[in-house]
Every structure is written in C-alpha cells, then in structure tokens.
Amino acid sequence: MFDEASASERRHRTARATGATRTTRTTRALRGVRRLAALALVPGLLLAGTVAGTGTATAEEQPRTPGGVAATLSRLTVHGTVTIRDAGEEWKTEAGLYEMTVTGGGTLQSYGVDLRTAARTGTTYKEVGWDESSLHQNKNAGKIRWILEHSYPQVNDLSELAERADVKSLDVEAAAAGTQAAIWRFSDDVEAVPADRSARKLAAYLERAAERAPEPQASLVLDPPALAGRAGDRVGPVTVRTRADRVTVAPSADAPHGMRIVDAEDRVVLDVGRGARLYFHLPEDVPSGTGALTVQADARVSLGRALVSDTHSQTQIVAGSSASTVTAEASVIWADKKATGAVPALSAKKDCAKGAVALTGTNAGDAPFAFELLGARHTIPAHGTRRVTIPLQEDQAYDLTVSGPDGLRKNFKGVLDCETAGAVAIGTADAPANRPTPATGGNPTPLSAAPGENLAETGASGATTPILYIALGLLVLGTGAVVLLRKKKPAPTPEDH
C-alpha cells in the first residue's frame, strides 16, 4: 500500500521487496539482460520467411488495417511527481495523463502501463486486446479497468473524487498522478508513492477499492480478417464486431471492378449494424487476384483498451475517448474459376501468452498448400486452416514476408512487446523518467546514448556496459539459449493485496 497502509500491509510490502512473494533481483536483472540481448539482435536480425507453393491462386496483396482506432502519442498533459520503489531501487518520475490524436478525427486520453519503457511522442499506436499487450495473463488487468472507470478523468468532479479518497481537496495534477500511481501498482508490480499527500491518499484508495472488471470490447474489428475463394463465388462471412450502432461498408480502392459487398441474401450493403455478416461477391470472369472490404464508424473507444506501437514505445491504456474514427479491413484472395491448386489466405497477430507471432492460413483451393517458414515445413490441406506459431524474444523486431503462388507476397512486421520492462542491473540503478521523448524513426530503444545524453532517460543505466557484455555472451550461445531464459513476470494474486 502507500503511506496510508496498515501495519500488516506494510509488513507484506517488506516481504514482497525481499522476494518472499515476488520476482527476485536476479530475475529482474535477467529480464534486463534478455531485453538488451533482443535489442542487440534488432539491427541485424529481422526474421525472414519464405512460403513456396504451387497453384494459380493469387497476386500481390498489401497489408491491411487489423481494426480499431489508430492514434499518435502527443504529450503528457497533467502530471505530478511519484517515487518508484522496486526491488531495492528507488527513483522519482512524472506520472499523469497523456493525450493522443486519432487518425481520421478524434482524441484519446491514456495512462502508461509499462513505466520503465520510454513514451515516444509522435509514435503511432493501434488498439489491441489484452492478449497482444503487456496486460496478457495479468490477473489484475481488470482492476486497472475499474480504476479508469472510477477515477480521473472519468470522474471529473474532483470534489466527489476527493470525498471518496478522504481528502479535503484534489487538483487535476494530484488526481492524474494518484490515478497513474495506482495503475502502476497493478500493471508493473511496483510501489508508486506520489509526492502530493492528496494524490497519495487517492492512489491508496484506488488500490484498496479496485475490483476486477471484464476486458473491454473492441471499438471495431472484422472476423476473420482474411478469406479465400474462387471467382464467381460468394465468399464469407465476415462478422462485424463493434461498439458503434452503424458502420459504413465499401470495397477497398484496389478491389477489382464488379466485386460487391453483400449480405446473406446477396443484397449490396452500404452500411450495417453490429453483428452483421458480410460476404464478397466475386464476378465469374475476374482473373485471380486480391481485394478487401473496408468498414468505418465513429465510436468511443472503451476504457481499458490497450494501445501498442509497432516500434518500442510505452504501452498505453485508454482512459478517455471522444467520438473517434475507427476502421477495419478484411482481405479476400481468389483464384480463377477454372484454376486448380491452392488458394491461401494469410493473417497474423501477436500471441503474448506464447511469446510469438501466430500466422493463420486458410486454403480454399483443391490442393494442399505446402510451404517453408524459418526452416520449418508446413502444409495447409485443401479446404483447411492451420495456425503456425513463430517464437520470438521479448523486444525482438520481426519483418516476416510470406510468398506464395503467382507472386503472392504478404508482409507482417512489428516488435514483440509483451512484458513490462524489468530492472537492467542488480541493485540500485538509474531509472527512466516517465516523460515523453521524441520518436526515433521507428527504431527500438538504442543500446547507447548520444554524447551528453543521460542513459537513464532512454531506459538504460550505468550498468549497461557490463550487462551488454553478458547479453553478447548469451548471443554467442545462440538464440535458443536466450529463449530458454525468457520468463513471464508473475501476475499479482488476490492474496497480495
């Protein structure tokens, strides 16, 4: 608990700090080594996958928008100072509310859920489920959502919030700092103590009162995101899952002439409601190719939705939303009506529980689709589906290009960012300040700083050099050895509070 904790709760904190119920210093240091090892891999090791098969099914296919809101991190709007204590380390940082600008129109407010990772202004984020973020397998993720629903800015009557926290008054800085401190307790498993007494009492109240809430619904997503079929057929369905009452529907700009988006009765649709089932109607005379449908709506993004980047920037969680533009696309790939062979449709998403990217392939053809990916051979049977899991290291960049028959090429890229960052050294070390820094062109956090730059601000520490030597030693042992060291951070249990 914070300064207002009971004696028993204080003793429990002490037990946690000494390792009785939490990760030890050594484990935290190893997590830092693993991150440095992965970052060392990034410049020279981007995954390359080649899929080779037979058939006459496909043409060039471009990456599609997976669905939901996309937003750019702007600034830390209101904040206060918080002291972080974790496994023998102690440092001060800024804690508060961020603002984000939505692509297409709208604004979001957010808090951070990975305090040791730098928040890079100008970075584009996308909405994902908890299973694709550092909240995966966190038993207290629902408590974070409860905090968002019962604190600032959702409760913007600060006198009411002050009464709940049993303080005389709260200003917006204290409200934001106290809320962020309570969130870090559950997202990063640290002791976060606001400097302001009112903020400290608010954080203690929120931590004490928080209850588990269910994961929030996506603002907009299409299921499945990729389909395969033949010219002349009606291919689908694609189900619309959204918070909006209505969404507009249209073929993508690169769709072939004559392709229509229809409902189950084969009627052309221009807008539909939530839960609608859509189909691609393909002309019989269209040659093999690809297309897509696009759905769009204005919706408020649910509190508690995770926001992640394809670079290495602090994971955010939605704390407030205006009516914002949300978009999703589903792709279709088809073969000529008379063609034989495989007709593969491919999609991919992060699987944080397995520390991997999961590639899903569907084959609508009349022959198996055989391919090699990263040295392993896989086969999708005719009219079948297969899921291929590609293990990665935490913080490892991936750039996976899948090639198929008749020039099909589909690319999936990003960074596997599934864990909250741990300490980079055993014992006390400088820690990153939680203030936004400029984006660095999409590259993960560098291993070294520019002349005169404080390594602490980039998430490194004075112990970077010896730890880097350890990391490089692990790399000599091979990627497999490093993967064996990979371990998830245990989620807090109800008894810990």
Overview of this protein structure:
It holds the Pfam family TED. GO terms for molecular function: phospholipase C activity. This is TQXA domain-containing protein. One of its GO terms (biological process) is lipid catabolic process. Residues 344-414 form the Bacterial phospholipase C C-terminal domain. The protein is an alpha+beta fold. It contains 8 helices and 25 strands. The strands form 7 sheets. It has a 6-stranded antiparallel beta barrel. A 5-stranded mixed β-sheet has the order 8-17-14-10-12, with no helix packed on it. Strands 7-9-13-11 form a 4-stranded antiparallel β-sheet, with no helix packed on it. A hairpin with a 4-residue loop joins strand 18 (344-351) and strand 19 (356-363). It is elongated, with a radius of gyration of 24 Å. It starts with 6 loop residues before the first helix and ends in a 12-residue tail after the last helix.
Descriptive key words:
497 residues; alpha+beta; six-stranded antiparallel beta barrel; 25 strands; 19% helix; disordered C terminus; membrane; TQXA_dom
Count of DSSP strands: 25
Strand order of the largest sheet: 1-2-3-16-15-5
Indicate the overall shape.
elongated
The helix content, as a percent range, equals 10-25%
Number of helices: 8
Which band does the percent of strand residues land in?
A: 25-35%
Given helix and strand content, the structural type is alpha+beta
Biggest beta sheet attributes? 6 strands, antiparallel, barrel
Distance between the termini: 8 Å
Average pLDDT: 78
Cα-atom radius of gyration: 24 Å
Report the uncertain regions: 1-34, 36-63, 424-431, 440-497
